Amino acid sequence: xxxRAASLEPTPTAKAATRRFRHGFPPxxxxxGIAALDSRTRPPDDAxxxxxxxxxxxxDSLVTFLRHFPRTDDATLIxxxxxxxxxxxxxxxxxxxxPNPQALDGLQINFFTKTQFARALIKNEALDAIxxxxxxxxxxxxxxxxxxxxxxxxAAIRDFVTAADGRILGGETAPEQQLxxxxxxxxxxxxxxxxxxxxxxxxxxxxxxAGKSKPKRS
Length: 218
Description:
Elements: H1 12-22, H2 51-68, H3 75-97, H4 111-121, H5 125-145, H6 153-161, H7 175-213
Helix pairs in contact: 1-2, 3-4, 3-5, 3-7, 4-5, 5-6, 5-7, 6-7
């Protein structure tokens, strides 16, 4: 991840994202398989990662995204840079899910293997949908990277920006803007999944610890 900004104070965007995270997401966007953190089921604040830790983590990802995401309408650059940003979020997710991610340092693992690795670690329909779209972008990126005059790019772009329900994210805007919106959406979904996964894991850890600390009845 990129270095943190000079200021240690979370940005307004990061603060808002943290508030939303700590008080739960609407039911329609919660990934299945992860406990809903709404006001009825949310555990005490000390059972969750600290607000400042979450805010700084969100800020790191936001700073990286805003620093590197293209401001141009060059579709090729959007695809290549967007692919790198999406891969970075997948790397972050794997780092969160693996108990000893450092063991993989130095290994050359391709994009598709990373997505399959994530699928193997947790079975979740919401995550599967995100990774399906990520793999479409990976195929599109490879088509551009390995061919001087690639064919079928426009059709591949339409396939990528079309959601599973047939909607085109971004509506009737230009293909370049649809690409940007789709990539930004996927990066945000991976970031959200990672923070909720961390919270769920911390809750489970606290419950297991509380169970072990209870004295046995004679």
